[in-house]
Design goal:
Mean pLDDT: 83
CATH class: Alpha Beta
Order of helices and strands: EHEHEHEHEHH
CATH topology: Rossmann fold
Strand content: 15-25%
Structural class: alpha/beta
Number of helices: 6
CATH architecture: 3-Layer(aba) Sandwich
Oligomer: single chain
């Protein structure tokens, strides 16, 4: 089942908050990954909102189910501090955080996990499984 299957229930009633796809937010600055993520999101029937400002991302994640994709090598923000902030604030703590990095950055991976990232993947694995990740993480089932 993917996000497209959740538009209407079998009885023909309109979408309800319980069946709407969760928001997908991204702190990604690499244009290649922005393109890959956007293409996979279109396939999954989900929308992605990109942020360069951690405060705006925190506001967007506040009080709503969401998945946050974080490029741990992103330029212009401190990804570990962002993850820690999301997980330390009661209104954003439920956000599912998926982070990705170079496969050789073992210490950075540990830092991201310690800060609260729910899933930390090497870039290659993230890219290879991106469509399925978005399908699973962006839908309320």
């Amino acid at each position: 089942m993917d996000c497209n299957d959740l538009k209407d229930d079998p009885a023909g009633r309109p979408e309800t908050p319980q069946t709407q796809p969760a928001r997908v937010l991204a702190a990604v600055s690499d244009l290649i990954f922005v393109s890959k993520i956007s293409a996979a999101a279109r396939q999954a029937g989900c929308t992605i909102e990109y942020f360069r400002d951690p405060e705006k991302l925190m506001q967007a994640a506040s009080g709503q189910p969401c998945t946050v994709i974080v490029d741990l090598n992103g330029i212009g923000l401190d990804p570990i501090a962002l993850i820690a902030s999301l997980k330390s604030d009661a209104t954003t703590r439920p956000a599912q955080i998926i982070a990705y990095l170079s496969h050789v950055q073992h210490e950075l991976r540990r830092e991201a996990e310690k800060a609260g990232a729910d899933l930390v993947l090497p870039r290659s694995e993230f890219s290879q499984n991106l469509l399925e990740i978005l399908r699973q993480r962006s839908c309320h089932l």
